[in-house]
Amino acid sequence: MAHPAQLGLQNATSPIMEELIAFHDHTLMIIFLISSLVLYIISMMLTTKLTHTSTMNAQEIEMIWTILPAIILIMIALPSLRILYMTDEFNKPYLTLKAIGHQWYWSYEYSDYVDLAFDSYIMPTYFLEPGEFRLLEVDNRTTLPMEADIRMLISSQDVLHSWAVPSLGVKADAIPGRLNQAMLASMRPGLFYGQCSEICGSNHSFMPIVLEFIYFQDFEVWAS
């Protein structure tokens, strides 16, 4: 999860998030190089009094500053499209979890199991145990198996919500009357926190999400 004064993204726990962080660093480096070049040119124009008259009407220079930005855009677009298609891939998910947004809590239904559903409310401050996080802890954590493809079906019963867990690279809108789909997976066990990311009313800040990833055998025992 995030920590105070953090400048970068949260540590990735899923392959998709690892790809997103790599793409972020790739794009940031391109922006840094372009900004450095522009700053250098501006500083040279402001500090030198020399001019080169032949560059005022040079076709070669115009071709370079037309083709080079196009190449840079392609270098950004191709990895972006690759990740976009990766997020839409759904290859035989191990289980399906349905998340339904309410004002102001989440309901979860395990579609592959009979009568396995519960509501997840924020934990009041006076019920917190030592080591638990205020405004992020819930009374019923969502338990999932690690190293498994999990299909999320996300909807809402009242207003717009958004189900988001940054360390997994998952964010999908919960829209009344519509079912959105997302895929998530965790490569390690642990607790991962998220929140509603769509302003949904006065208690919008009090809709945390807690996912607890455990080993396969432990999950089967829990689900049974």
Task: Summarize the structure in words.
- By secondary structure, the protein is of the alpha+beta class.
- It folds into 2 domains: 15-88, Helix Hairpins (Orthogonal Bundle); 95-223, Immunoglobulin-like (Sandwich), CATH 2.60.40.420.
- The protein is 31% helix and 26% strand.
- The chain contains 3 helices and 10 strands.
- The strands form 2 sheets. The chain has a 5-stranded mixed β-sheet, with no helix packed on it.
- Helix 1 (15-47) packs antiparallel against helix 2.
- It is found in: Mitochondrion inner membrane.
How is this structure best summarized?
This protein is of the alpha+beta class and 224 residues long.
- Helix count, per DSSP? 3
Q: Give the number of DSSP strands.
A: 10
Task: Supply the CATH superfamily name of the largest domain.
Answer: Cupredoxins -  blue copper proteins
| Largest sheet report | 5 strands, mixed
Uncertain runs are none
CATH architecture of the largest domain: Sandwich
Q: How helical, in percent, are the residues?
A: 25-40%
The general outline is elongated
User: How large a portion of the residues is in β-strands, by DSSP E?
Assistant: 25-35%
Query: What is the name of the CATH topology of the largest domain?
Result: Immunoglobulin-like
CATH class of the largest domain: Mainly Beta
Counting helices, strands and paired strands, the structural category is alpha+beta
Distance between the termini: 30 Å
Topology as H/E string?
A: HHEEEEEEEEEEH
Tally of distinct domains: 2
Question: Whole-number radius of gyration?
Answer: 24 Å
Strands of the largest sheet, in order across it?
Answer: 3-2-1-5-8
- Look at the structure and give the mean pLDDT: 89
